[in-house]
Amino acid sequence: MEIFLRAEQEGGTSLSEGPMRHALDGCYEKLPQQSRKMLALKYEQELPSATIAERLKSTAEAIRVALFRIRANLKECIASTLAAEA
Amino acid sequence: MTPNEELIHRFLEDPAGLSETDLEQLTAHLRAEPAKAGELREQLIIDDLLGQKLAVDRKNFPTMVQQRLADFEKGEEEKYDQVADLRAIAESEIEKSVRPLGINPWVKFAGGISLVIIPVLCFVVWRYQESAPRAVANVEELSGKVLRIKGSTEEPLRIGLAVSTGETIIAAAGSTIVWKYKDGTTVRLLGDSETRIQVDSSTLAKQIKLERGELVASVAKQTRGPMVFSTPHATATVRGTELRLVVAEANTQLDVTEGMVDFQRNGGSQVLQVAANQSGIATAANIQPKEVQWPVNRISAAYVFEGLDKPQYARNPESANLRDTPLEVAGTAKASPKFALLLRGGNYRSEEGGKDALAVIKKSGEFGCDILFTPDKAGNPEPAVVCSFGPAGNENFLLLQTGQGLVVQLRDTAASSPMVFELGEIALGTPHYVSLACKEGRFIAVVDGVEATASSEFSNPMASWEEGPLVLGADASGQRPWRGEIAALALFDQFVDKPLSDANRHRYRQLHP
Fold first, then answer.
1. Are residues B207 and B245 in the same domain?
2. Residue B122 sits in the same domain as residue B73
3. Given an 8 Å threshold on Cβ–Cβ distance, is A61 in contact with B6?
4. Which residues of B55-64 are buried (b: 16+ CB within 10 A; e: fewer)?
């Protein structure tokens, strides 16, 4: 958590560059195909959970939970990457 | 899943989608479990990173071109038909250029030339598209006189019209306009303001240039790049937040309600990060944080009482500065332990405050009042005056409580009796934040964040309002005494609409938890 937040602060005014973003790129590549598909629907196409759920034959609640878990996994992965690089 | 976990998931999905009750529940939960607050923050950071990563990916040139062309196909076909034609030609030529061209050297030559010319042509067309006016938002609300200037033409705006890049929008004093972008971002331009609508030429990110006056913006999460608000003194850069900008002659004030804004003085290198419930002020010479104040629109305050431990201010009609104008006690009234006005038959009043406030209110033609009070548990069985403004027997404005009922009276010169607005019932013994405002054509009253009454056919009586004292706890002659506590009062020479009322209420709660 500490290393994670410190990296966030060191990232400056934007997170678009810097160690966290670099770590995210690597962690994103490690995600399963289904997770990346869900993130694409959420962040690239900016679809609400209800619409994603329709497409993936799920429920909005399940999609929200799945996205939460994907983000939590990414956070763990980023924190590990940053710790290893420190 | 627990209800609190569900709330967190819903908040992550759409922070603006939670009701006030949900937000309060979520806040209480996070306060009780700091670990959850940390977890939520991490989720928001990852959310932001993913938004940026995937948005950046989208900015790849071919995708952007397709996106831009798709935009035109959606709504601007007439203006940009040639783009579609050029695209067809370009695709056709590119397709030809990768096929075996046979042995004719002229065909090879034409193919080679097309490979050079077509990307250049596409680039030129793309740049043309970006410099051409684009309809970016629609007018959602409008009152008063608002003009748009396009080149040398000038026309009044009205609800439903689209506003485009390159247009200058001028709201006359007392007017308001709200325009809404496709992503839900809204900009509310208040009276006596001038702004120009733009987009970044390479990313199409939204831009607003506020030359003078005041705006309040609620910015949805931005994927094309931060939305930039520029003024003659500074630049505010936001990805998604709620903010208010006020441009005066010598400075620009930024108030942030939600999120974080990068605030930078023009010509300066220092970036001031202004977080929620913080303010910054930029002049030609410097930029610095500003003490958070209640009300947030203090620049429009005609009178401010925020506790007897602080000075009471009235706006000087000559200089427009706030000056110390203390309340004076009359009868059985005293300060509570928290410096509120404890009223048990007496009242607090200010002759000078009433006089100064009336002068600026009449000048603007708008009136607003925010008041925080706690009615006595025993109630006020007879009509009792919480706040009075104007001469005895002919008060311009009265806020009355009878039993649990709350009523506003406004002096109406066109009729022998005042206009009466019932605000409903309030609980006794608990604090209430009441906002009311009027201007030509509109009246609104908000009680504890809920719109209690509104009228769009309000005939403004302010021109004939007369000088008289500002009195808290009785009418101008000291009659109809009210029992309870008054913690704060602000009068404004501005129509305080509901978003501004909400911002003031939250600010008060922030400063007086």
1. yes
2. yes
3. yes
4. beeeeeeeeb
Tokens standing for residue B84: 């579609």
Burial class (CB in 10 A: 0-12, 13-18, 19+), B382: exposed
CA distance linking residue B70 with residue B92, whole number of Å = 18
Which of the residue ranges B14-18, B23-27, B132-136, B450-454 has the most confident prediction, judged by mean pLDDT? B450-454
Do B457 and B333 fall within a single domain?
yes
Strand duo B176-181 + B162-164: pairing: unpaired
In this structure, are B145 and B259 located in the same domain?
A: yes
pLDDT band for A1, please (50, 70, 90 cuts).
low
Number of domains within chain B: 4
Range of the structural domain that residue B337 is part of: 298-511
> Are B182 and B256 within one domain?
yes
Q: Is B51 in contact with A43 (Cβ distance < 8 A)?
A: yes
Is it the case that residue B364 has pLDDT exceeding 90?
no
Q: Residue B185: list chain A partners with CB under 8 A.
A: none
Whether B123 and B7 map to the same domain: the answer is: no
Phi, psi angle pair for B431, to nearest 5°: -75, 145
Q: Name chain A contacts of B262, Cβ cutoff 8 Å.
A: 13
Q: What number is the average pLDDT over the span A1-26?
A: 62
Alpha-carbon distance of B488 to B87, in angstroms, equals 63
Say yes or no: B462 and B447 in one domain. Answer: yes
Kindly state whether A76 is in contact with chain B, defined as any CB-CB distance less than 8 angstroms: no
Task: Looking at the structure, tell me whether residues B85 and B143 fall in a common domain.
Answer: no
Task: Measure in Å the smallest separation between the Cα of B65 and chain A Cα atoms.
Answer: 16
B271 touches chain A (CB under 8 A): yes
CB contact under 8 A, A71 and B9: no
Q: What integer pLDDT is reported at residue B254 of this predicted model?
A: 92
For B287-305, how does the pLDDT look when each residue is reduced to its tens digit (9 = 90+)? 998 877 899 888 889 999 9
Q: Do residue A68 and residue B12 have CB atoms under 8 angstroms apart? A: yes
Chain A residues with beta carbon closer than 8 angstroms to that of B53: 21, 24-25, 28, 43
Does the pLDDT value for residue B186 go beyond 70?
A: yes
Q: How close A37 gets to chain B, by Cα (Å)?
A: 12
Instruction: Dihedral sign for Cα B7, B11, B16, B17, please.
Output: negative
Helix (H, G, I), strand (E, B) or coil at B211: strand
Which residues of chain A are within 8 Å of residue B6 when distances are taken between CB atoms? Answer: 61
Architecture of domain A2-85: Orthogonal Bundle (1.10)
Range ranked top by mean pLDDT from A48-52, B14-18, B269-273, B357-361: B357-361
**Residues 6 or more apart in contact with residue B231 via CB below 8 angstroms:** B209, B210, B211, B245, B247, B252, B282
Paired strand residues for B162: B138
Write down how long chain A is.
86
Residues of chain B by 3-state class (helix, strand, coil), percent to 5: 30, 40, 35
Which of B73, B103, B131 is the last residue in one of the domains? B131
Peptide bond into B295 cis (omega under 30): yes
Give the domain-ending residue among B131, B155, B190.
Answer: B131
